[in-house]
Write a structure and sequence with these properties.
With 209 residues, the chain is of the alpha/beta class. The protein is built from eight helices and five strands; from the N terminus they run E-H-E-H-E-H-E-H-E-H-H-H-H. It has a five-stranded parallel β-sheet with strand order 2-1-3-4-5, sandwiched between helices. The model has no long low-confidence stretch (mean pLDDT 85).
């Protein structure tokens, strides 16, 4: 008997920008993911309800149903996890990620080389959240810890130019060296990034000599 071929992971991409849709779809298809492309929020919601994707990538600002509205539906209906695509500043995106429970983000205009690291980090977190939901337990605390750890790993991947496993190993080893929990170190790392971004914003607003 011939073994069944593994099913491709299904990814929903919702963005009214045709160029972003084309570029991100091309990158993910080249990595062997199956992609559903939608140009509007209501279209994306219908596709998500019907196909139940493994992850959704959502542009925040779209005409009609916004990405925020779409994200609320995906969350309240427990359809799938999502990451945001946004042209907003770093601090504002991070605030939105935390407020609406996204598992990651891509900032426009994005560096093509950063798409896969950010995407893979978000997909791994989405898988972990699904596992936690199945197991219940202290779900809220566990989900928050998982989100923060995954975002910290994504930050290290960007800063160090490392893959996910290496970034996690660096985070874990640092936590162990101080006899601390990985999530505690992850929370501090994200807070440091937020502080650094505030300094960058303040510097950008200074009058130039």
């Amino acid at each position: 008997m011939t073994a069944a071929l593994p099913t491709k992971r299904l990814i929903l991409l919702v963005d009214d920008d045709a160029l972003v849709l084309s570029v991100v779809s091309h990158i993910l298809r080249a990595a062997d993911y199956e992609i559903i492309e939608c140009r509007a929020g209501d279209e994306g919601l219908a596709a998500a309800r019907e196909r139940k994707p493994d992850l959704a990538l959502i542009d925040i600002e779209m005409p009609g149903m916004s990405g925020i509205e779409l994200a609320r539906h995906l969350h309240t209906e427990s359809i799938t996890e999502f990451m945001f695509i946004s042209a907003h500043g770093e601090d504002e995106i991070l605030d939105q990620v935390r407020e609406y429970g996204a598992v990651g983000y891509l900032r426009k205009p994005f560096d093509v080389s950063q798409v896969m690291p950010a995407f893979e980090t978000a997909l791994a977190l989405a898988d972990e959240i699904r596992r936690l939901r199945r197991n219940e337990g202290h779900l809220t605390d566990a989900l928050q810890a998982a989100r923060e750890t995954s975002m910290a790993i994504g930050l290290l991947m960007r800063v160090l130019g490392a893959d996910r496993d290496t970034a996690f190993a660096v985070l874990r080893d640092h936590a162990r060296s101080g006899r601390r929990k990985v999530n505690e170190v992850a929370t501090e790392l994200l807070a440091a990034e937020e502080l650094f971004n505030s300094f960058k914003s303040a510097y950008a607003r200074r009058p130039q000599a």
